[in-house]
Write a structure and sequence with these properties.
With 268 residues, the protein is mostly helical. The protein has one domain. The protein starts with 22 loop residues before the first helix and ends with a helix. This is Elongation of very long chain fatty acids protein.
Length: 268
């Protein structure tokens, strides 16, 4: 199915010159190569195990300067992505049936949003390198970490070709949280003692992100069930709901173990 994406002159998101790209060509390429995301994910998991074996009898690397530059770069990228994608949602929410349009309609989609959606898909490949710092510094690698990286990579590549309207929400939320999260990691890499409350806030925002992701997908199911038009593919809704629900459970469990359970132990 060929998706027609037209730039709306009245939109708040006027594309910059370097954001104007051949959208149909990018969709065609993704349709033909989206299985690359599975290859990247498999290689990622294999390299994790190989790296952990390599580091088993070695001293951990510090990598403070490199870690700082990496996190600063991703923070700047994520903040820029949020500033370029959120205005589209903001505009729609000021209109009648704004939330419904933001979830189910391609109205007001722009080439700028499409461009940052493509960048998001490729950035998920780059973000796999986050784990290299965990392995090389011999830090604990939890299931949530690598599961989140692989599943988001697969989801962003899978949904890009349909230009899912709900990606407005998924993109903006992800860019927003990552902007804060990577800035936090950059500060920690410098040795700055960041208050524990900041990490609590970040994890709380991540949980709210997952709740919103579940809400958007459940809303899509409900309106389709009552016969209201919603320009989303069944598979996109099903995969999105499964993914965000699993994140909500996993991040909630992480929050409990990291902040609530540990705090109760200290009080004993």
């Amino acid at each position: 199915m060929e998706i027609q994406l037209q730039f709306h002159p009245e939109s708040h998101v006027k594309p910059l010159e370097w954001e104007k790209f051949n959208f149909p060509k990018s969709v065609k390429w993704m349709e033909q190569h989206w299985h690359y995301s599975f290859i990247f994910s498999l290689m990622y998991i294999l390299i994790i195990h190989a790296g952990q074996m390599m580091m088993k009898n070695r001293r951990p690397f510090k990598l403070k300067s490199l870690l700082f530059l990496w996190n600063v770069s991703l923070a700047i990228f994520s903040i820029a992505g949020f500033l370029r994608t959120f205005p589209e949602i903001a505009k729609l929410l000021t209109e009648d049936s704004g939330f419904h349009k933001s979830v189910c309609s391609r109205e007001q989609q722009t080439i700028a949003t499409a461009f940052w959606s493509l960048l998001s898909a490729w950035s998920k490949v780059a973000e796999l390198f986050d784990t290299a710092f965990v392995v090389l510094r011999k830090q604990p690698l939890i299931f949530l970490h690598w599961y989140h990286h692989t599943s988001v990579l697969l989801f962003t590549w899978f949904t890009y070709t349909s230009m899912d309207p709900s990606n407005r929400w998924f993109l903006s939320m992800n860019y927003f949280i990552h902007g804060i999260m990577y800035a936090y990691y950059a500060l920690k890499a410098t040795g700055v003692k960041v208050p524990r409350s900041i990490s609590v806030v970040i994890t709380s925002l991540q949980i709210l992100q997952m709740i919103m992701g579940v809400t958007v997908n459940v809303y899509s199911l409900v309106v389709r069930a009552v016969g209201t038009p919603c320009a989303r593919k069944d598979m996109d809704v099903a995969v999105g709901l499964l993914m965000y629900f699993s994140y909500m459970i996993l991040f909630g469990n992480f929050f409990y173990k990291a902040y609530l359970k540990s705090s109760s132990k200290k009080r004993v």
